[in-house]
């Protein structure tokens, strides 16, 4: 089955207002920027997003966020996005913070048809006990708080029940993919993209390099095409357009002072 869609605009055209989205990416690595930009142009609103982070100011999911198009976020890290903090603390946005490993497993579980699982992560904190502010009121009070979760003991250790996540749509980015939807991810882009792709009922993948079926060695495929319904090939320019989250510069040590030769 050929799953290639010529343009990102066509691939996201039927995503409606209020849709839930699982979006891949880890920091700025592996973010499906082309699909996000197409969704921004398409105009869908009140989106419920599940992603490790919500982009940065002006990039990735930050585009949708700044336009007021995201209503709820389930994620594990939002610390570098000032607009996100403003909306959340101002009561404009609902946020469910989840431990990063738990979020990864919730996405994987949903993709595998597992409705829930027990984990020790979060036991003894508000993650399990409830009370985390999901939404603030305009006056700064808590309008919606997280509920308490079931806790059970296994082998003498307490574990909290976490639910698997499935979403209406998943948007992901892969380094290579074929027309059948088999995908290969590069380095840190592999952290959340395969899991997000598994959780979506409809998964759209933008690929930096499109190859014909049979080119990819089965042993190098990170995500089989059964999880992917649409493949959007990127242009060379789109594939090369990658952001840098933080620039780290090495400062050279000052040169040792020259020794002046003295003659007696």
UniProtKB/TrEMBL annotation:
Pfam families the record matches: CoA_trans
Gene3D superfamilies: Glutaconate Coenzyme A-transferase
One Gene Ontology MF term: transferase activity
Transferase keyword on record: yes
PROSITE patterns to which the protein is assigned, alphabetical: COA_TRANSF_1
Family matches, as SMART domains: CoA_trans
Organism domain of life: Bacteria
InterPro entries per UniProt: 3-oxoacid_CoA-transf_A (IPR012792), CoA_trans_fam_I (IPR004165), CoA_transf_BS (IPR004163), NagB/RpiA_transferase-like (IPR037171)
Keyword Transferase in record: yes
Keyword field: Transferase
Family label: Belongs to the 3-oxoacid CoA-transferase subunit A family.
UniProt protein name: CoA transferase subunit A
The species this protein was found in: Streptacidiphilus alkalitolerans
